[in-house]
Amino acid sequence: MTRFRYQALNTSGDLLTGEIDAESRRQVFGELEKLGHMPIEATELKDGAGGGTGGLLSRLISSKPSREEITEITRDLAMLLKGGVSLHEALQLLSQMGGKPPLRNLMAALQRDIAQGKSFAEALGVHTDVFPPTYVKMVEVAESAGTLEATLDKIAQERTRSEALRRRVTSSLTYPLFLVVAACGVFLFVMLQVIPEFERALSGFMDKMDPQAKMIFALSRFVQANIDMILGIVAVLLVGGLLLSRSRAFVGLLIRTLARLPGTRRIVQFQQTVFFCSTLGTLLASGVDITTSLRLVRDLFRDPRAAEKVDQLIAEVRQGHRVSDALAKLNLLPAYVIPILRVGEEAGELDTMAVRIGGFYEDRLDRALARLTSILGPSILILVSLMIAWLIVTVITALISVNELLV
């Protein structure tokens, strides 16, 4: 993504400025329009704060509040508002609390914007790198309805649930990745330290070795001679993976690939269902209209093809079709979800039904992740054991054959 500096007018005619990460200038304008602002200009930042590798490095080392800190401060703000504290005083208190400097500075900036006459949603909209469009839109609707404290509490609960799910997904992949890294480390150790000792002991009998032993010794010599190149390639792959993870097209390709694999197909489907239904239900329950809610959900999809399906869904809804009827044609969610959403629409409780579906599939996602981890862990251990056993057995067999020749 590229960093842009933008200028826009809010609904009161005030000039807003700020920075945002986006794929293009057109996307910047789209994000501003979704927040109710009129875009004026979006300039790509070319220096260290902008795009490219330098911009990536700058963003990696830049200090801004984490997702967890924003969730916690949202919960604190809701609690203060429920206690009768005004928004201006609540932001002032939070800016003086003993949190990290980036968080205190953010609260102080929001307080200054409120003091200048901006609405809370407009103040949040300046910091698009911290507060996503769904957050800002829910606050905007809540300010109009006079339910800001309840909405902030709901936002905090939804973010907490989402972060817990993200941690479960991450932790389920950590153990298999650790095993892969450990396997690579053991392989390098054997190639660099163990096999050379056997090769020196058998150096006079190389012509009598079987082909497998010769191949192992040749592989060991190759690793020893090119260890710097191998480590360099690993470093390049890691950096390249980090850069590609910020590419929407690459992430979409990765998601589609995982969706075709037998072991991960259901996990991708469950995660997409949880994401779509939970976010849609939360937005609708906060008073956001159906079209805007779908548009906000669409922009959160990291798979461009799934986002295109949501675009088709939005077009169908604008033409007067039901959400459930439009979803039935798109193959975006499991078939089981469609009739349940239809019942919710007919009862006027689409938001409640969508949240329930999200919770149901979140449980199924947890079970699928646990099942995948229970299969991957032992499978990787078995493969690593077989690889090391093959290396050692081949070398020991060669050593025994040499002893027999000497006898």
Report on the architecture of this protein.
It is a single chain. The chain is mainly α. It has helices spanning 25-34, 52-61, 67-82, 87-96, 101-115, 120-125, 133-145, 148-201, 211-225, 227-244, 248-258, 265-285, 290-300, 304-318, 323-328, 337-346, 350-406; strands at residues 2-9, 15-22, 38-44. Residues 47-62 have low confidence and may be disordered. The protein is elongated, with a radius of gyration of 28 Å. The longest helix is centred in the C-terminal third of the chain and has 57 residues, at 350-406. The relative contact order is 0.08. A three-stranded antiparallel β-sheet has the order 2-1-3, with helices on one face. Keywords: Cell inner membrane, Cell membrane, Membrane, Transmembrane, Transmembrane helix. It is a multi-pass membrane protein. This is Type II secretion system F family protein.
Structural descriptors:
mainly alpha; 407 residues; three-stranded antiparallel β-sheet
Number of helices: 17
**Helix fraction by DSSP (H/I, runs of at least 4):** over 70%
Percentage of residues in DSSP E strands: 5-15%
Most strands sheet: 3 strands, antiparallel
Rg over CA atoms, rounded to whole Å, is 28 Å
Oligomer: single chain
Ends distance = 69 Å
* Count of strand segments: 3
Q: What are the secondary-structure elements, in order, as H or E? A: EEHEHHHHHHHHHHHHHHHH
What's the arrangement of strands in the largest beta sheet? 2-1-3
Can you tell me the overall shape? elongated
Low-confidence stretches: 47-62
From the helix content, strand content and strand pairing, which structural class follows? Answer: mainly alpha
Q: Please state the average pLDDT score.
A: 82
Membrane topology: Multi-pass membrane protein
Keywords: Cell inner membrane, Cell membrane, Membrane, Transmembrane, Transmembrane helix
Subcellular location: Cell inner membrane
Protein name: Type II secretion system F family protein
